Amino acid sequence: MEPLSVEELMELLDSCRGLRIATGRGGPVDLHEHALQTAALLRRSHPSDKELQVAGLVHGIGHALRPGEPDGHADLAAEAVRELLGLRVARLVRERPGAEPAPDALTLHQAGAAARAAALDAGVLEDWRPVLELVAARQTRPGGRHTP
Question: How far apart are CA 14 and CA 3, in angstroms?
Fold first, then answer.
């Protein structure tokens, strides 16, 4: 399912509630809470980078799109949000730490790791609707698309 609107993306994110995923580092985490916590940590550390925050919010949705499949969730999530949220968000979601990760991708993955360990009250999903709408609106304007 490729979300065609912010409303559809919000519904997909809400469907992550209660979906527990193994992280390989510690016990399983609730995907919904993990998304909120990752985005909240990025909001605190990079308050002006809305695309980075949104990437933190949506980076795990591949698990909801194909539950139980251990591989390929990052690519699936990136493709699902590319048209709505843009190339940079898709790149951030897809990119995994490797030999030379881009600094913003490394920041995202560090926030994800910190969120797994944090006991953080990250608010509610509805708090993110205006940020999602802002990032999506940038993609619909001429010249609003970003290069990876």
Answer: 13
Nearest to 12 by CA among 89, 70, 108, 77: 77
Q: What is the pLDDT of residues 85-124, one digit of tens each?
A: 999 999 999 987 666 778 999 999 999 989 887 777 889 9
Q: Which candidate, 83, 79, 85, 23, places its Cα nearest to that of 50?
A: 85
121-144 per-position pLDDT tens digit: 889 999 999 999 999 999 876 555
Helix pair 50-58, 6-14: axis angle to 10 deg:
40
Residues 105/78, Cβ–Cβ less than 8 Å: no
For domain 6-139, give its CATH number from 1.10.10.60, 1.10.3720.10, 2.60.40.10, 1.10.3210.10. 1.10.3210.10
Full-model pTM:
0.88
Backbone angles phi, psi at 28, to 5 degrees: -65, 155
The domains of the chain are located at 6-139
- Using CA atoms, how far residue 137 sits from 84, 134, 142, in Å, is 9, 5, 10
